Amino acid sequence: MRPFTYTRATDVNSAVQEITRHEKAKFVAGGTNLLDLMKIDVMAPQHLVDITRIALKTIEETADGGLRLGALVTNNDTAYHEQVEKRYPLLSHAILAGATGQLRNMATDGGNLLQRTRCYYFYDTQTPCNKREPGSGCSAIKGYNRDLAILGTSEHCIATHPSDMCVALAALEASINVTGPNGDRVIPIADFHRLPGDTPHIDTNLQEDEIITSIDLPAKGFAEHYTYLKLRDRASYAFAIISVAAALDMDGDTIKEARIALGGVAHKPWRKPAAEAMLQGQQATRENFQKVAEAYLEGAKGYGDNDFKIELAKRAIVRALEQAFNKEGAA
Amino acid sequence: MEKENPPLPPLQSVTLRINGKEQRLELAPWTSLLDALREHLHLTGTKKGCDHGQCGACTVLIDGKRINSCLTLAMMQEDKEITTIEGLAKDGELHPVQQAFIDHDAFQCGYCTPGQICSVIGLVNEGKAKTLADIRDLMSGNVCRCGAYVNIVKVVQEALERSEAK
Ligand SMILES: Cc1cc2nc3c(=O)[nH]c(=O)nc-3n(C[C@H](O)[C@H](O)[C@H](O)COP(=O)(O)OP(=O)(O)OC[C@H]3O[C@@H](n4cnc5c(N)ncnc54)[C@H](O)[C@@H]3O)c2cc1C
Ligand code: SF4
Ligand code: FES
Ligand code: FES
């Protein structure tokens, strides 16, 4: 690791002051992504502001009947929280599908939102990568790209966002509360992560001097019909090749509302509300699910090694919706 | 031409509470908890496998929860209760999970074992493993290159039964 200086923030305001006061500074929470990347010189901040002592560690009801997750609540404490298990099992399952017991005890909800891509070239400082070094080129587009994106890509970057938690947050339409030098603002999860475009080095719309304070879940948790389906190379402890967070609100056999978010396919959790709406008022049949799956993958583009992901994503959507309908939870 | 390196930032003092004992150290801020344990305190029971959160050899308990000591800074763990493999035996008696590793022949080279043991204790504290599949999933953060998994699972089952009997 390159040398850096270290200070602790005791509250949100001092955290914002510290990050503005120091050059090339970063917050550190669980450390599981940042320190990992610093060890291999992909990230090299000159100062770390430890935010782990700030009182953002509770999960509380919101005025509108939803739940507020403090940014520093660990992933395990979130997934195992009684209210989350009961009212937002989709989120609970998605979190538990990721990483390991040890890592989830360290990883925080705020840090999870900001974890960086797992594109191998991003990790390999010997190769060009526009995300790591803007303007150097993308090694993946013509290189080995089996795990990389098929939707929303650009000629500059085809990386995916690796989080499981964020896919569930997208389906649940969570919003992110942040504080910066100019005060507080709320960023809907759909606007939080960006597509690569010609600025793949910028992952999210959070500013460098802003701190995430909490994540709000709306009251509607789809606790009856939901599934987090994660397809990966081994049964545990691997990033998703494709994942699907599916949630249905049913009126008998008729679908009142459907939510579908895809992971492992794009630079952000992928949703297409227009395609979801095709299911409104429809029966939960395989034919209907297949139509939506086709619509979701419209415009998808493979880069060679990852061509198979287009068909795989379609089948995963159908399977996830069937599981959600049949109340089969996570599998 | 190589640029001259800027002077290193100064060491910072930190008090770590390890296995019930306070230890005052002067550390470079970038020292991981794992390196502080092994290189500065010579508590070499905690192992370094990958140094990237992938193998679990460095697992220790912080306030009773299992974590990877390679992915946290020593500075970040001030005022926490840190338990390493060296702190588990009490009054010359092995911790029941340590004893169970011997009884079930759950290791070969032993390199992963300290991390496995801390992980089992953390898993039992979490209280979420109900089935065999749960055990396998929730222990997947501890890799064993000797492949002692079958017997490690037996240790976990025994530890879970013991905690339920209590
Ligand atoms: C071996 C391994 C396997 C993994 N497998 C999976 C997996 O299968 N699925 C999955 O989803 N994830 C997986 N992960 C990733 C893991 O979930 C993330 O590393 C973790 O969620 C990051 O959270 P953190 O608190 O440790 O973040 P940190 O590493 O502390 O921080 C990450 C970034 O977020 C910033 N930050 C943190 N908190 C805040 C805040 N409150 N406000 C503003 N900025 C902030 C930091 O400055 C930093 O840039 C894996 C990680 C490892 C090491
Ligand atoms: S896909 Fe993105 S992260 Fe991967 S090499 Fe190309 S620019 Fe870098
Ligand atoms: S050394 Fe920490 S997980 Fe491998
Ligand atoms: S006993 Fe040798 S690595 Fe596990």
Written account of the structure:
The complex is a heterodimer of chains A (331) and B (166). With 331 residues, chain A is α+β, with helices and mostly antiparallel strands. Among the domains of chain A are: 45 residues, Uridine Diphospho-n-acetylenolpyruvylglucosamine Reductase, domain 2, CATH 3.30.43; 106 residues, Enolase-like, domain 1 (2-Layer Sandwich), CATH 3.30.390.50. Chain A contains 13 helices and eleven strands. In chain A, the strands form three sheets. Chain A has a five-stranded antiparallel beta sheet with strand order 4-5-8-6-7. In chain A, helix 5 packs antiparallel against helix 9. The longest helix of chain A has 18 residues. Chain B is of the alpha+beta class and 166 residues long. Chain B is elongated and about 55 Å long. Classes of the chains: A alpha+beta (331), B alpha+beta (166). Chains A and B meet through helix 2 and helix 6 of A and strand 4, helix 3 and helix 4 of B. One FE2/S2 (inorganic) cluster binds next to loops of chain B. Chain A: Keywords: FAD, Flavoprotein. Chain A: This is Xanthine dehydrogenase YagS FAD-binding subunit.
